[in-house]
Amino acid sequence: MPTQNKRDFNAVADQWDQEPRRLKLAQDVVAAMRQALPLNRDMEALDYGCGSGLVTLGLHPFVGRIAGADSSAGMLEVLNRKIQSQSLANVLTLPLDLELQRLEGSFDLIVSSMTLHHVQDIPALIATLSKALKPGGWLALADLESEDGRFHDDPTGVLHHGFSREFLTGEFAKNGLTDVAVVTAASVEKQGADGNPRRYPVLLCVGHK
């Protein structure tokens, strides 16, 4: 990601969870993932671009262990404080440069929510995540459906204005994933510049290795 178009998530980490709309979105995405995926307590899971861990912590009771991976040290510090305060034994954090497309280890489940639009090369990312799945593993990626660029009030760090269903399912299929499906996981309502509310669907694409 070019430095001049990279959002400083460290600067907003401590206030990240104070936005009710953000909390509701994470809850909706977790609910959609629980419905779409055969979660079980034997799963080793990864939340790619976990931020403050809203989705990570929403999923942790339903998997064996989950790592929250992010390139923002500030966000991981917020998640670490939650882990410590709740004495969670099955949640850990993983510093990771989201742009390098390198991922160590293998997982039964890899999820991501509202991270794709901050990553430049989405085909390369989906390929990397697919390779990191164990045989039989699941990939579940949630992000905005294609929109006209008005969702983000501050476009810093926004490299894509959402994604189409066809693009997501196509990239999953190219990487050999099966049982590929897309559902509307959530809908975010925001007031437009004209004062009228607008709804922005958030898609969840899942696939099986």
Keywords:
single chain, alpha/beta, 7-stranded mixed β-sheet, globular
Order of H and E elements: HHEHEHEEHEHEE
| Basic shape | globular
Bin the strand percentage. 25-35%
Helix content: 25-40%
How far is the N terminus from the C terminus?
Answer: 29 Å
How would you describe the oligomerization state of the chains in this entry?
single chain
As a whole number of angstroms, the C-alpha radius of gyration is: 16 Å
Helices and strands, with pairings:
Elements: H1 9-12, H2 20-36, E1 44-48, H3 54-59, E2 65-70, H4 73-85, E3 91-95, E4 107-113, H5 122-131, E5 133-144, H6 165-174, E6 178-191, E7 197-208
Parallel strand pairs: 1-2, 1-4, 2-3, 4-5
Antiparallel strand pairs: 5-7, 6-7
GO molecular function: methyltransferase activity
Keywords: Methyltransferase, Transferase
Pfam family, one: Methyltransf_23
